[in-house]
Every structure is written in structure tokens, then in C-alpha cells.
Amino acid sequence: MKKVFPILLGGCLLTAGQSSGQAKISADSLVRYYSRLAKGDEADKALLTDKMYALTKSKKETDWLTAARFFYQLKKNNVSDSIQQVAAKQFPTGVVARNNAVEVIYNENDPVKKEALYKAWLKKFPPDKRSKDMIVYDYAANSIGTAYADADNLPKALEYANSIMSPFWKGQGWAGTAARILKHGHTAEAKVLLKKAVEDAYEFKTTRKNEEGAMFAATGYPGYLSSYAQLLFNDKEYDSALVYLKRAEQAETPVRPQVNEMYAKVLIAKGDYQQAFVRLSEVAAQGQLNAGSRGLLAETYAKVRGDNQLEKYIDSLKGGLDDKMKAEFAKQIIKVPAPGFTLKDVDGNTVSLSDYKGKTVVLDFWATWCGPCKASFPAMKKAMEKYKNDPNVKFLFVHTWEKEENAAASAKKFITGNGYPFQVLMDLKDPATGINKVVDSYKVQGIPTKFVIDGKGDIRFRFTGFSGGDDAAVAEVSAMVTLANQ
């Protein structure tokens, strides 16, 4: 399991050759100054480039890391990578060397050997508990615990799960270990870990919300609640499961599909088919049915109504969904020229955005390592099917931010293996800069991100993420295509 570390910043110099008579500027002020230059005009960027090269003459690793960071912001990724490579040699006990050395631990699969490597790494790079990058050590320790969990060594797995030092990461460590030991049937121990994760995340949402990393720690709260409720359900503790499902329901809007599905399962187990039917009908009306909740709706429908008109009933529930989506997205319409591009698809064919002038293009940025991207694909397939007879609507799926050498082959294997009729274009890293040019030109910060481009070449909509419901996702795409064409 490979872990990529962020560049960590400490103090830095204005220039490596600063005279002793000059007033010293705080590290925070310098970073703000460099950031302004990075966002400035070409002259500012040229000045920043000179200052960053000057920092590489420093005898402080923090200056080298600052240089690497800002070369990355200047979209000179290869220069940034080269600086970090040299820094590892220049500072053999420094941050970059430490982060490179830990990769050996991640690449080892045997838990005993992994632990021995970990202890040797700790000896060479002892942690400073006053440092803000203790998370690096937590990642490494978690890697050992994960290996022991997979090998069904429960005592060791629990030891490492409880050894995490960064307060904001404890919940994630407990929940991750719980998921792995569950595969070996350790339900009681997993319940303990998940309950700790739930209460820890709740504290960060409430009494500890001002602590460092609180927002990150709190994000896991709905998921931990859902996972814990699942274990309570499995143990037939239905009333307790409902308590935690209600908390999950109150924790976020919209409610995640698995919470609605689990809620219905608990109600069905308690024999309350009517309430389960009402809840699942509400889910259907929002377009949030997935394969699991659709099956549960069919079960409750048969109990409550007893006819064979389920699909007609579902269609009646979501009858106003398209109009609702149009009203919602009409407020979000934009008009920005879409950056042009030319890419190869997974079969080696050359495709340009200009090939589809006059057509509405749905552009979907994704990657094989991106779970939400892949989760959205069944819905995107349905959206494509809706427009299969419309020659003026085109779907293009751009694979980007690749993490492996054979990215095109991997993307093609995934698409064909799952029967998706998608045309996949490969936005590979530019050899000169190390940048994925197309995703960068569209200023994408996270994937999946989709764009709807009208026939005149203007971006009319941009949306990130996946709602979790196939019908809602299809209605979203349909609304945006319709509005883009008006």
C-alpha cells in the first residue's frame, strides 16, 4: 500500500543570499508573499521562480520543500520532483528521506517483516511529538496494524489501532481496523472500535470542533454511524440500530443511500412493512433508489399493495423529479468558454473537442482508483441510454491523474469488463511538466467532476461528486443538457 505524502512546510528564507542586515520576515508572511506571486502576472511568476531556485542553495531542508511546493504551484511539476529527489540525498535524515524510506514498509506484505522494517525506520527517523506531521508515523503504524488484521492476528491489529497519536485521525484508524477484522468474524471487537469512532467523531463535531483537524475528524461521523448500525442489525439489536440510524439521518443532507436501505431493513425485520414502504417510497421520489433499496421496495410493495405495478408506481413517484432538477439547475447555469483539447482514446484514436462543434458534450473526468467515479458509472450508462438516439448529445469520459504506468490499458480493461459503452480519452501527464494538461485547463480540484458544454463551445454546468441515486443522477444530467440547449 503506497502512501503519498504532502510537502511539509516549516520556516523558509526570503532569499538564500539575504544579507544579515535585512529584517527577517516570518515564515507565514513569506508563504503569503510567495502565494501572491504565484497568482500574479508573468513578471511575478518569473520573480517567484528566481526566488525558489535561490532557496535550493539553502542549507535548510524546509527551504528546499518550500521551493518544491511553489514550483508545483507554478505547474513545473518535474522541477518540483527533481528538487525533492536531490533533497533526499542532501538531507539524509530529513523529511523527504524519511518519507521515501517509509515506502519500503508499505511495499512489504508480511506483517512480521513489515513490523521489523517499521521499528528500524523509527530508530533512524525518531518522531518528534511536538511536530505537526505525526500523521506520517500514524500512517506507517496503521500499515502494520492493517497487515496484522488481514493476517487475523487480532491482538496486534488492536494494538496498532489504539496506538494512533494524531487526535483527528484516531476515528479513521479505528473504523478501518474494524472493517478488516470483521472479515475474520471478530464482530464484538469491531463493534467496540466503531463505537469509539462514532463518539470520537461526534466530539469533533461538537465540543472539540475548534481543535486542529476537527473538520476532517468529523467527516467520518455519518459513515461510522451507518457501519455501527449495520453490526447492531446483524446482531438483531434492532431498537439500538434505529437509535444510531436516526443519528446518521440527522448528520447529513441528503441522507446517504445505505442509511435509508439499512433503516428499511430494520423496519422489515421488526415486521413494520408499512413504515418501510413509506420510507422507501420517499427514497424513490427523490431518485435515490439503488439496487439494494429497489429490491427492498419491491418486497414491501408486495406486502402492502400486492399487485404487479411496481415500476408504474416508481415512475409515478419520480414524476416531478425532472421538473425539480430543471428548477434547481436553472439557478446554477454558467457561460464560460470550454478549453479545447486533443487526446487519444484507449484504442489509440485521436479525439478533439472541436470534433463535436454544434453538439452538447457531457465531459466526465474520472480515474480507475476513484471509488465515487466508478460508483456513478451505472447512472451515467443510463443517462447515455436516454440519449442514444439523439445525435446532438455526446458523452466523453476523460481518465486523468493516473497512478500507474499502463493507465490506458487499465482504464480499457475496467470499462470493457463492466460493459460500459463509454468512449474513454486519456489525459496523461505531459513529459515536460508532469501535468495532466486537460484536467488542469478545466481547473478541476477533485473527481468525479462533470461538465456540460453547449453547441457553441461554452461550459454551461460544472458539478462534482455523485449523489448515490441512479434516477436522480440521470435527472441531473437530463436537466443540464436540456437547459444547455435552450
TrEMBL record:
Q: Name one GO biological process term.
A: response to stress
- State a single Pfam family of this protein: AhpC-TSA
Taxonomically, the superkingdom here is Bacteria
Q: PROSITE patterns of this UniProt entry?
A: THIOREDOXIN_1, THIOREDOXIN_2
> Which GO MF terms does the UniProt record name?
antioxidant activity; oxidoreductase activity
Any idea which UniProt keywords this protein has?
Redox-active center
Q: Which InterPro entries match?
A: AhpC/TSA, Thioredoxin-like_sf, Thioredoxin_CS, Thioredoxin_domain, Thioredoxin_ResA/DsbE_sf, TPR-like_helical_dom_sf
Q: Does the keyword tRNA-binding apply?
A: no
- The Thioredoxin domain covers which part of the protein? 332-485
Keyword Ribonucleoprotein, does the record have it?
no
Q: Which PANTHER family match?
A: PROTEIN DIPZ, THIOL:DISULFIDE INTERCHANGE PROTEIN DSBE
Q: What is this protein called?
A: Redoxin domain-containing protein
User: Where is the organism placed in the taxonomic lineage, from the top?
Assistant: Bacteria, Pseudomonadati, Bacteroidota, Chitinophagia, Chitinophagales
